[in-house]
């Protein structure tokens, strides 16, 4: 276990209570060639009202972490260590029945490619009935549940007539994503986790989904955790950002700190410089040299060191810990040395 100060990054951005917390969470995939650790000792705290963005290049473990936050990891994956606390309750200690109730009613997930969250041979309306039937503890009167879903459809800019009698194959990609978001909210979860909610969509639907998420937060008070590799979506929506690199969290900070503070992980700096116009209008984008290491061939020390302009001997030997400085937690030897000098 690491000391408290090294793992917590409870950014002083929002005043809400901690609703969802990962503590030293690790996820392993048992593969024929050996065990691959996709999420390695990750801790995070999501507060009521946060819009928490998990970012990083493809293969960094974002989707695996998003699933693990509801104690759901696809086979052959297992949660190998740590815990997830939902308002202080351990999700790893819950029974299957407790998890079933918790997953849609307290913390709901919209997985990547929303398409797979529906049964293709049952209409959306019939699937809604199944959910309402299975959760009388939330909707004792199913008519009220249906009315609430109509209200949610309106929030995602759709009408019951466009959705209820249809099969998922009859919805466009943008509609499917919005129906999946409405569906995920029908049991009034306080936290909504979305994996790449805008990635597969055209620009118009991306815009709609961003507006919808903002509405859900403002009108329903839903706390949002979302995975993305698109920093322009982060800039529009997030209050807090967690940046992952090769299975580790390398920086956690409020959005303004990530975008404008000098105390930044070199990977985060490189990510920001790889997209045009986020930091300085008119500046051309530069790509990050090299690639994310394969999770079964990690370099010793800091996993970013082989691509890092600041890398020094210590970086190639010791994996840096996430050190919190006034709500801005960075895992980088050179950056943290500068921080302690100041
Ligand atoms: N079902 C799986 N079986 C085996 N390995 C997996 C599985 N899902 C993810 N991984 C591995 O875990 C790592 C992280 O993947 P993922 O969480 O999908 O990353 P991201 O969402 O950031 O692109 C990758 O190295 C990937 O190969
Ligand atoms: Mg992913």
Kindly describe this structure.
The chain has 342 residues and is of the alpha/beta class. The chain folds into 2 domains: 4-106 and 189-279 and 295-341, 3-Layer(aba) Sandwich (Rossmann fold), CATH 3.40.50.300; 107-188, no CATH class. It has helices spanning 4-7, 62-68, 96-105, 124-134, 142-155, 160-163, 173-184, 203-220, 231-237, 255-260, 266-273, 333-341, and strands spanning 18-31, 34-47, 51-55, 77-86, 89-90, 107-110, 191-195, 223-228, 240-245, 248-254, 323-325, 328-330. The strands form 2 sheets. It has an 8-stranded mixed β-sheet, with helices on both faces. A 4-stranded antiparallel β-sheet has the order 2-1-4-5, covered by helices on one side. Mean pLDDT is 90; it is low at 1-13. The protein binds adenosine-5'-diphosphate and magnesium ion (MG). Magnesium ion binds at residues 62-63, 112.
Task: Summarize the model shown.
It is built from 12 helices and 12 strands. With 342 residues, it is of the alpha/beta class.
Secondary structure layout plus pairing:
Elements: H1 4-7, E1 18-31, E2 34-47, E3 51-55, H2 62-68, E4 77-86, E5 89-90, H3 96-105, E6 107-110, H4 124-134, H5 142-155, H6 160-163, H7 173-184, E7 191-195, H8 203-220, E8 223-228, H9 231-237, E9 240-245, E10 248-254, H10 255-260, H11 266-273, E11 323-325, E12 328-330, H12 333-341
Parallel strand pairs: 3-8, 3-9, 6-7, 7-8
Antiparallel strand pairs: 1-2, 1-4, 4-5, 9-10, 10-12, 11-12
The structure holds adenosine-5'-diphosphate and magnesium ion.
What does the largest sheet look like?
8 strands, mixed
Helix content: 25-40%
Q: The CATH topology of the largest domain is what?
A: Rossmann fold
CATH class of the largest domain: Alpha Beta
Which strand order does the major sheet show? 6-7-8-3-9-10-12-11
Strand content: 15-25%
Query: Which overall shape is indicated by the principal axes computed on the Cα atoms?
Result: globular
CATH superfamily of the largest domain: P-loop containing nucleotide triphosphate hydrolases
**Hetero compounds:** adenosine-5'-diphosphate, magnesium ion
The whole-angstrom Rg is 20 Å
CATH architecture of the largest domain: 3-Layer(aba) Sandwich
Order of helices and strands: HEEEHEEHEHHHHEHEHEEHHEEH
Alpha-beta classification: alpha/beta
Total tally of structural domains: 2
Mean pLDDT: 90
């Amino acid at each position: 276990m690491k000391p408290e100060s090294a793992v917590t990054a409870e950014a002083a951005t929002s005043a809400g209570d901690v609703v969802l917390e990962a503590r030293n969470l690790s996820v392993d995939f048992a593969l024929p060639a050996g065990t691959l650790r996709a999420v390695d000792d990750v801790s995070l705290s999501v507060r009521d009202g946060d819009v928490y963005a998990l970012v990083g290049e493809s293969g960094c473990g974002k989707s695996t972490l998003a699933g693990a936050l509801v104690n759901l990891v696809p086979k052959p994956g297992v949660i190998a260590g740590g815990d997830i606390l939902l308002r202080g309750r351990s999700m790893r200690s819950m029974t299957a029945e407790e998890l079933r109730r918790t997953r849609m009613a307290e913390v709901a997930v919209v997985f990547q490619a929303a398409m797979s969250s529906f049964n293709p041979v049952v209409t959306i309306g019939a699937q809604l009935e199944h959910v309402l039937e299975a959760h009388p503890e939330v909707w004792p009167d199913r008519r009220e549940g249906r009315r609430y879903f109509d209200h949610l459809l309106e929030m995602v800019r759709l009408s019951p007539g466009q959705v209820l009698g249809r099969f998922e194959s009859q919805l466009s990609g943008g509609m499917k994503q919005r129906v999946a978001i409405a569906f995920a909210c029908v049991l009034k979860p306080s936290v909504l986790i979305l994996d790449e909610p805008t990635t597969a969509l055209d620009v118009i639907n991306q815009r709609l989904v961003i507006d919808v998420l903002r509405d859900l937060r403002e009108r329903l008070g839903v706390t949002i955790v979302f995975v993305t590799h698109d920093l322009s979506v982060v800039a529009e929506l997030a209050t807090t950002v967690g940046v992952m690199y090769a299975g580790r969290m390398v920086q956690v900070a409020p959005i303004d700190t990530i975008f404008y503070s000098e105390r930044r992980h070199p990977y985060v700096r490189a990510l920001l410089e790889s997209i045009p116009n986020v930091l300085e209008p008119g500046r051309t984008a530069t790509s990050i040299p090299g690639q994310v290491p394969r999770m079964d061939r990690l370099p010793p020390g800091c996993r970013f060191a082989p691509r890092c302009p600041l890398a020094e001997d210590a970086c190639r030997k010791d994996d840096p810990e996430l050190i919190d400085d006034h709500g801005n937690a960075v895992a980088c030897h050179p950056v943290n040395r500068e921080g302690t000098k100041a």
